[in-house]
Amino acid sequence: MIEKRPIIALDFPSFDEVKTFLAQFPEDEKLYVKIGMELYYACGSEIVKYVKDLGHSVFLDLKLHDIPNTVKSAMKVLAKLGVDMTNVHAAGGVEMMKAAREGFGQEGKLIAVTQLTSTSEEQMHSDQNIQTSLAESVIHYAQKTLEAGLDGVVCSAHEVEAIKSATSADFICLTPGIRPSGSQTGDQKRVMTPAQARAIGSNYIVVGRPITQANDPVAAYKAIYAEWNQG
Ligand code: C5P
User: Fold this and answer.
1) Annotated catalytic residue: which of 49, 52, 66, 98?
2) Which sites bind substrate (predicted)?
3) For 164, which of 23, 84, 115, 215 is 20 to 30 Å away at the CA?
4) What one-character-per-residue DSSP string does 151-175 give?
């Protein structure tokens, strides 16, 4: 499946800024948004309830990583909030990911982070003592994620084709690091346009600042929506 709506990363520090941002969109425009650690830790579950009550879909990006029992219990809480998608670190292991699935249930999408895109191959060698290539580690974690019964992974758009061929065509690849043609890349180093991400098989794209920091966020969203769905 391909989600038509680009997921908007609500990387705001406060409830008020989220309200102001969302109020710019027409009431009947149902969005898909990403709530990450900053916003969730600042506002708690109220922010999820607020956004869900407006009729939007929520990807809660908290990247859980703990012992299986703790992750399972936490996932039960997140499922009750009605989040549409959430995630864990694949480094927590197959047992932890299975426990996450049990806790979260089958209703929403559950995906895993393989290697963070901020991790370089040298850092992976020295900090994690994983002596393969970064690409091999990403594939390994993606295969473990599939084995654990999760729906897919968060990955760089550049990794999508290799991940799909090592797992399955319907294994979800959710890709941040998306920039519309001709825009600033910010601190994202390896970016792709929405059209490129579509062409290489990404299922969901996450876009933050190109929409949230735009002079006209609604127009920016529409342009990215159109580019992602064009073809
Ligand atoms: O503003 P920008 O479009 O760069 O935001 C991308 C969002 O996706 C941010 O919330 C960022 O934390 C997240 N993300 C990312 N790269 C990853 C994983 C998550 O940029 N590999």
Assistant:
1) 66
2) 11, 34, 61-70, 117, 179, 188, 208-209
3) 84
4) -EEE--GGGHHHHHHHS-TTSEEEE
The number of CA neighbours under 13 Å toward the Cβ of 16 is 0
Fold of 7-229: TIM Barrel (3.20.20)
Q: Give 132's contacts (C-beta < 8 A, 6+ positions apart).
A: 140
pLDDT tens readout for residues 83-96: 999 999 999 999 99
Count how many residues are written for the chain: 231
Beta-bridged to residue 172, according to DSSP, are 152
Q: Which pLDDT score, from 0 to 100, does residue 187 have?
A: 72
User: Residue 158 C-alpha to ligand 1 middle, in angstroms?
Assistant: 15
- Rounded CA separation 118/122 (Å): 11
Give Dmax (Cα) for the chain.
51
* 151 labeled binding residue: no
Residues 61 and 37: their CA atoms lie apart, in Å, by: 7
Annotation says 63 is catalytic: yes
Considering 19, 52, 63, 98, which one is annotated as catalytic?
Answer: 63
User: What mean pLDDT do residues 213-226 have?
Assistant: 97
Domain residues of the chain, as ranges?
7-229
pTM of the model: 0.96
Cα(107) to centroid(ligand 1), Å: 25
**Rounded to the nearest whole angstrom, what is the distance from the C-alpha of residue 58 to the centroid of ligand 1?**
15
- Residue from 190, 207, 174 nearest 9 by CA: 207
Any atom of ligand 1 within 6 Å of the Cβ of 194: no
